[in-house]
Design brief:
Two copies of one chain form a homodimer. Chain A contains 15 helices and eleven strands. With 436 residues, chain A is α/β, with parallel strands linked by helices. In chain A, helix 9 links the parallel strand 7 and strand 8.
Chain lengths: 436, 436
Amino acid sequence: MTMPATARKPAARLNELTATEIVAAVGSGHATCEAVARACLDRIAEREPRVLAWQYLNPEQVIAQARALDQSGRRGPLAGVPFAIKDIIDTCDMPTEYGTPIHRGHRPDKDAACVALSRKAGGVLMGKTVTTEFANRYPGKTRNPFDPARTPGGSSSGSAAAVADCMAALAVGTQTTGSTIRPASFCGVFGYRPTYGELRCAGVMEAAGSLDTLGLLARSLDDIALYRDVLLGIEPAPIPDNLTAPRIGFCRTHLWPQVEPATQQLLEDAAQRLARAGASVTDVTLPADFERVEDAHRWISSFEFARNFTWEIEHHWDQISETLRNGRLKDGLACSYERYRNACDLAARCRQLSEPIVGDHDVLLTAAAAGEAPLGLDSTGSASLYAIWTTLHVPSLTLPVFTGPHGLPVGVQLIGKRNADRALFAAARWVWRALG
Amino acid sequence: MTMPATARKPAARLNELTATEIVAAVGSGHATCEAVARACLDRIAEREPRVLAWQYLNPEQVIAQARALDQSGRRGPLAGVPFAIKDIIDTCDMPTEYGTPIHRGHRPDKDAACVALSRKAGGVLMGKTVTTEFANRYPGKTRNPFDPARTPGGSSSGSAAAVADCMAALAVGTQTTGSTIRPASFCGVFGYRPTYGELRCAGVMEAAGSLDTLGLLARSLDDIALYRDVLLGIEPAPIPDNLTAPRIGFCRTHLWPQVEPATQQLLEDAAQRLARAGASVTDVTLPADFERVEDAHRWISSFEFARNFTWEIEHHWDQISETLRNGRLKDGLACSYERYRNACDLAARCRQLSEPIVGDHDVLLTAAAAGEAPLGLDSTGSASLYAIWTTLHVPSLTLPVFTGPHGLPVGVQLIGKRNADRALFAAARWVWRALG
């Protein structure tokens, strides 16, 4: 097993700096944008044959962007920060192929909102990172940077792996079920799914519009907060320093038996450590309706997905994987409108029910994954644990705090209130300091 | 003033049939898809120099599609129906230019969900209809089919004009403020804005994602219901026959003084006629909070719009109209996150407040426009009347029931409950029979 840079923690090379550190180094003249970009390209040259995080990478394009930034003297809030973009997100100067041969070589004519905002802030787009097919379950080529025999998770596979392996400081993924939180947990990085609807998805492939959000990946919590502000198009502000210990609701959910015993133990221990550090930690049990949310998520996402990909279904059925045809598409094409509507209604009811539950705490603490990244590359891991939180439209974060029985990372997931993402960051910082 | 075919009501030529009638004619062998398409092309050849509804039209492509349908013998629920697509919606075989020189010649590589679903159902895509710049306010070339000196309304200008002038039976537009209801009223056709989130927007340019929906235009209510089912990807079902007279809430809103006196009188008369026909008609006054919804809509739409078009702002500022630069973009770039959040919170509160108000009635009756289409082509008309309903995420319909003082059409707008669009259609049919 080869440990990636995040695990080895050597004296910091430029590619190992966080985004916040890069901005400081570039701002103070201690590093150029080009030097940072070259350090990332060197890392990629060394590690890409093993990790396979990139769908498109053109070193000349990267260097040209970095040089132009150095020459312009423009210093935005992401000055010189190398970022990666999941390959379901439009870029004006690179292909966007959605993880499928159907769209091989496709070139959009403009940048998605999140790409344009990243570049406007001074970021350097490194390239396009591997996605599963249409951000669904059929895996891409990427391997877990901690162990090439294991999945990196998905669907934002390359985004999580590239950040974990210090090939880029930041990455944009997406999440419709667990596509950011799961790979972040498996790859040992911070992953953030924002409140539904807040970060613009213009130029991002729609999988299931009533569930889709962007997802951000980084190697520090400050980086996540910084990147969120950049993508909101607002002046970045530091995470508020939460001096008082948070009220934490430990929410195992009815899916607890699906969490591996070792991970259960890590979470139980974490809850105790947080209590000892001064947090109020109480058990939270969700009402029985929530046991049906995973099923509702299945029908909502499948119904919408199957309509969004009508063109591919009609014209390229034989180029769609069996996994997708016999999964989302089969479900979605068979789903009646009544079943879809009932699922949407259940989701809406649970959103309302969840407000006082989440509102009684600063954060809920729950599993970010059943365990370490599983062996094998045929699957990106179970999606069960994520459907509840994604369907509720609440913001969530995974923090890379645990090490599993094989020495691989496991995250802890924190859930915040809708439209209170900064409060989630503040509580997460407290948790990170107590556990990290 | 030249009256378009909808006003003249001659013996029906094929291009003057509704979608429902075309499906019947093609299904029974009384017309071929090609004959219907040719009738529409003939109409376009005759009238396009005056109406200017089309951004892209290639008769050979149209005939080829129609012939292929005739030869295949496939008979979907839109068999042979000529439909038009607003030029902010992706098409795999035609340009998509968003009403701006910035994207001239842009060719997406696939059909938007709504286009693919229309074709799958047997529809014949006639071409791309004129939109205002980025579906905002700077007008395109289209003129009102009833009077070329008047605006057709916008932003779905060409979509409404093409359907009104019998160049196509159906059209897809979009609505972020009043972009479907207003041009439908001005052009004398049925216009429908669905419940927010229900009809998939994959492949449709995002203006302001938390407000955008598709908008459908047709020359009959049955056609609207049929097209909705096709775009939901479900088996079409006829509008339920509502035997009991509906409970109608007459909702003038605080913007009533902006409605022209002649239109006020038409609406008051209509309310009386509906009551005489047996409906329960009661006055509805909205709570004071609703007076701030138009302002909230302004900040929500501007904040989101300005971020979605970051690429154009950064690279093509000088090709953006003054109207857009000094309107949405100026507002959006100046809008603080706090102001945006407050606006979103007000919108969410009013959505909750509106539920019992709308729920006490089968429909609300309100103005679809201040009056007839105004003279001049520099503006597509006032957007004030629409912001409340669009922001509430409720479904709405305009029915072409009135004739204004200059002999031009004026619609009446009906508002339904969220996620009860078919109930809205049933009530609208009753209203249409009573007023139409």
